[in-house]
Automatic annotation (TrEMBL):
Lineage: Bacteria, Pseudomonadati, Pseudomonadota, Alphaproteobacteria, Acetobacterales
Protein name as it appears in the record: Esterase
Coiled-coil intervals, chain numbering: none
Keyword Nucleotidyltransferase: no
Signal peptide location: 1-23
Domain of life according to the entry: Bacteria
The entry's keywords: Signal
Species annotation: Roseomonas populi
Record has Signal as a keyword: yes
Length: 347
């Protein structure tokens, strides 16, 4: 990674990285054995409830006690972590923690790369997603006639055609943006990552948000790295409590805090809001970028430390919404780590 003086700022690092994607990515992936001090998994959060609609199958009792709303966390801590802050990676809509693992075309994912760069790395599955499983009580209540159809939970799946434009592979399916860096030759592998999304059915407050707050406290200081749907979650967690939150990296957030929010939770907190390419050509994403700029302006006027970076404005072009899987994904990871090195104090 280019080593720059702290005062050089993100613009200096961007200039150093703004070479063609192929030239930057070649040789960037570390080689050799991966040495870790420890690895494992655990859950944060969760609540216990009793239900009479756990099952409609004769072999399983309908009544019983289950635990729900827990958030799954998988982690690796490198042997040379030193005082580097842990990084918590949170996926977006219709996806799981797989977002941060091996890319669809088989390249090193951020989860491994960040560990190889010396950072303890924690990858979560949002509550009710992946290994943070949902519970079927409301569905079975309707199935057994104990509740009306209007009580069914809202769950949806994003079709490939719709996701194509949401992830900004092109203006419409199957067109592609010129110079797109997402590896579309491996799109079938990418589509396999998509899962049903229960986000509109989770309780309030969102258990993924409370889980992130609990995880940051447990780690005694972490940088929360969110993407898309989860983009607002670290901000909401900071609104609950700043304890343990040492920085926020929001990658193409579905929402930033509104400019009329209370900015006190963000005073002095290092925040990077990072955007890829083609945003201005997306009716979905262009207003969200503007809202993040409005938030940054208001937060910084109140003592915040918010940077909004749009990669093509710094000469890095072609990135989709899935920056962590694009062909220059490790270049972007190094950019983020450069920002963390300059802005987030070591433990």
């Amino acid at each position: 990674m280019p080593i720059l003086p702290r005062a050089a700022g993100l613009a200096g690092l961007l200039a150093a990285l703004s070479l063609p994607a192929g030239a930057q990515e070649a040789g960037r992936a570390p080689q050799g054995p991966l040495t870790i001090a420890r690895q494992g998994s655990f859950f944060v959060g969760g609540r216990t409830l009793h239900s009479d609609t756990l099952s409609t199958q004769p072999a399983y009792a309908p009544s019983g006690t289950v635990t729900v709303d827990q958030m799954y966390v998988r982690y690796q801590v490198p042997a040379d972590a030193g005082a580097r802050p842990p990084l918590v990676l949170v996926h977006g809509c219709c996806l799981t923690g797989k977002t941060w693992e091996t890319t669809p075309d088989g390249r090193m994912g951020w989860d491994e790369f960040l560990v190889r760069r010396g950072y303890p790395t924690y990858v979560v599955d949002q509550a009710w997603r992946g290994r943070s499983a949902a519970h079927p009580t409301t569905i079975n209540a309707v199935r057994t006639g104990k509740a009306g159809m209007d009580t069914l939970p809202t769950v949806f799946a994003a079709g490939q055609e719709d996701a194509w434009t949401i992830f900004r592979f092109g203006r419409r399916h199957p067109e592609t943006f010129p110079g797109l860096l997402f590896p579309l030759e491996a799109q079938e592998e990418f589509w396999k990552q998509m899962v049903p999304d229960w986000n509109f059915s989770v309780p309030s407050p969102n258990p993924s948000v409370t889980g992130l707050s609990a995880l940051a406290k447990r780690l005694e200081g972490a940088v929360l790295v969110s993407h898309s749907q989860s983009g607002i979650y670290p901000f909401q967690a900071a609104g609950m409590s700043r304890e343990g939150i040492r920085g926020i990296v929001a990658i193409e957030p579905g929402a930033c805090p509104a400019a009329d929010w209370d900015m006190a939770p963000y005073k002095g907190l290092p925040i990077l809001v990072l955007w890829g390419d083609f945003v201005g050509e997306s009716p979905r994403w262009a207003p969200r970028l503007q809202a993040c700029r409005d938030f940054a302006r208001t937060a910084n006027a109140a003592g915040g430390r918010v940077e909004v970076v749009v990669l093509p404005e710094a000469g890095i072009r072609g990135n989709s919404h899935m920056l962590m899987q694009d062909r220059n994904s490790l270049e972007i990871a190094d950019l983020v780590l450069g920002w963390v090195n300059r802005n987030v104090e070591a433990k």
